[in-house]
Amino acid sequence: MTMTGTTRGGTSWEPKFVDALDASTCLGCGRCFKVCPRNVFDLVDRDELEADEDFDDDGFDDDNAMVMTIANKDDCIGCEACAKVCPKDCHTHVAA
């Protein structure tokens, strides 16, 4: 199913919804959390993710103790604001 919207100016626009977040490169800056209008993200302690065998935190120290995760993927509206403010390009988006 393809979803298409129209901007105020009449231009077609296809929303892309957050599908994944690379926590191993996330700085935990909270920019995506702050800009998201739908509470899609949650800031968690990096130690909670270290139990996940797929998580690799090379280069991070105790000063980078927090990391962003996707808490409510289904609440994403596809605006991609999170990707626009992320300094590490951690977000992956997909069309509906």
Q: Brief description of this entry?
A:
The protein has 96 residues and is α+β, with helices and mostly antiparallel strands.
Task: Describe this structure as you would to a colleague.
With 96 residues, the protein is of the alpha+beta class. It has a single domain, classed as 2-Layer Sandwich (Alpha-Beta Plaits). It contains 3 helices and 6 strands. The chain has helices spanning 31-35, 46-50, 81-85, and strands at 5-6, 12-13, 16-21, 41-45, 66-70, 91-95. A two-stranded antiparallel ribbon has the order 1-2. The radius of gyration is 15 Å and the shape is elongated. The model has no long low-confidence stretch (mean pLDDT 87).
Helix content: 10-25%
CATH-scheme architecture:
2-Layer Sandwich
Structural class: alpha+beta
The end-to-end distance, rounded to whole angstroms, is: 6 Å
Kindly state the number of beta strands. Answer: 6
- Label the overall shape: elongated
Which strands sit side by side, in order, in the main sheet? 1-2
Q: Nearest-angstrom radius of gyration?
A: 15 Å
Largest β-sheet summary: 2 strands, antiparallel
- Catalogue the unreliable spans: none
Helical segment count: 3
Q: Which H/E pattern describes the elements? A: EEEHEHEHE
**Mean pLDDT level:** 87
**CATH fold assignment:** Alpha-Beta Plaits
Q: Per DSSP, what share of the residues sits in E-state strands of 2 or more residues?
A: 25-35%
Number of domains: 1
CATH class: Alpha Beta
